[in-house]
Amino acid sequence: MAKNMGEKKSNPNLTKDSKSDQERARQEKIKKLAERGVELFPRKVHTTHSIEEIVSNYDELSYEELEKKKIQVTVAGRITSIRKMGKASFFHMSNSWSKLQVYLKKDKVDKESFDIFSLLDIGDFVAVQGILFKTRTLELTVLAESLTFLAKSLHPLPEKWHGLQDVELRYRQRYLDLIMNPQVAQVFKLRSQMIRNMRSFFDQRGYLEVETPMIQSIPGGALARPFKTYHNALGVDLYLRVAPELYLKRLVAGGFEKVYEINRNFRNEGISSEHNPEFTMLEFYQAFSDFHDMMELTEELINYLCQTLLNSEELIYGEHKISLKRPWKRIKFRQALLEYSGITPERLDNKKEIIELASGLAPEKKPFSYGKALDVIFDKKVKQKITHPTFLTHHPVEVSPLAKASPESTQEVERFELVMGGMEVANGFSELTDPEEQRKRFQQQLGERKKGDRESHMIDEDYIEALEYGLPPTGGDGIGVDRLVMLFTNQKSIREVILFPLLRPK
């Protein structure tokens, strides 16, 4: 295997005062590597296998089979442990998913490789060429024939057993978190697979994946407070989207009968175990359907994801086993309030008392309409009590300005929220298709906005005009991808499933 040789590189700049003894020792080693003519920052290395491929393809082979096959590999990774024994050493090299042992013996490698190894530390990157075998303890191992230096870790990794315990440090330095905690990498591997399987699910059903604007002149599609910015060339205020809904429904009006988008949304709101200002949603819309169809499709999708990703119809979340076997429970919003909150029917109908109760539960969300007060009470007193997947239907019209009114009551709409594990996971409607009614709803929202409600909709005249050209009966749904990953990986904080969650600057 060719060595990464080349002209000496200048040492990275670290001030003497800021360096620990270990860091100074590593600086000395990188200086010695440079003196030997080793290229400190090589551009490329050829490998035959990844660590994961070697482990998955050859770990089941016996000692005798490996002896017979003489499988030659070239593999690269980060050194995560070293055990030196004079003229022979064992070390492990890892990637985010797997680790592989290497046996380096002085009489089996060239002198240059052995000398380079003497200057290596835990955390450094190397490539190894050699033959696979199994040790007496049957651990799959590479018998090294040559070694190539790839990168020096100028800082020691966190101590092995105590690891990276500071939660905020884990999020700020996610790269260290991934190095030290392999289970964290598995969470994000499942997240990637989930999104890939979502695409497969909708592609197989004839949906078209689309992209809609993330910077909008009028924020809409959800009752949420947007981030505001300014476009210098156009001289206008713009907003990061809170939801893609209004643009996706424009596409349905334009003839795209089935559309979906896996999108990034931004809401200028609080941070909690369930909320990050930047988050991922799956939204999908289907012409000639309603909210019943969307509930069926949502059930089918999440059950499919569970079976394909976890090979099960059950989730373990905290101390609960959550069954995803269909059909799922459906209950009206008002009935859920009565059943779970302890509020009597008489008190629930007392608008003044309900608004006072909501004001005490969430004073930051004032001013309150009756419908918004009911929604706050549901959020604070009901949601966390629902563990198994449950569709809450027929919400108040005041908090559902984009949903079609229920034929049973003009004060309720054809809407559902899916709650499981105590979290809202999905939100869908029979979409409002009447342009005059939509204008009226927007005007009501504008009135709330003038009273100080910064989560209310603005009037989107272009969207209303799109409705005037005709939007067929349409069902739509939005699913919180981050929260779904939380459920599938048994994580209690949304920050555990977002690679780089928003943090307050140091």
Number of strands: 20
**Strand coverage percent:** 15-25%
Overall pLDDT metric? 92
Helices and strands: which structural class? Answer: alpha+beta
* Shape field: elongated
Q: Which residue ranges are poorly predicted, with pLDDT under 50 across at least 5 consecutive positions?
A: 1-16
Fraction in helix: 25-40%
C-alpha Rg (nearest Å): 29 Å
The biggest sheet amounts to: 8 strands, mixed
The side-by-side strand order for the widest beta sheet comes to: 6-10-11-20-19-18-15-14
End-to-end separation: 45 Å
Please tally the helical runs, counting DSSP H or I stretches of 4 or more residues.
16
Detail the topology: elements first, then pairings.
Elements lengths: L20 H15 L15 H8 L4 H7 L2 E14 L2 E7 L4 E7 L5 H7 L7 E10 L5 E12 L15 H6 L1 H7 L1 H23 L3 E2 L5 E2 L11 E4 L4 E5 L4 H9 L4 E9 L11 E10 L3 H20 L3 E4 L2 E4 L5 E4 H9 L3 H4 L2 H11 L8 H13 L7 E4 L11 E2 L2 E5 L1 E6 L2 E8 L4 H16 L10 H8 L5 E7 H9 L17
Parallel strand pairs: 3-5, 6-10, 14-15
Antiparallel strand pairs: 1-2, 1-4, 2-3, 4-5, 7-9, 8-9, 10-11, 11-20, 12-13, 15-18, 16-17, 18-19, 19-20
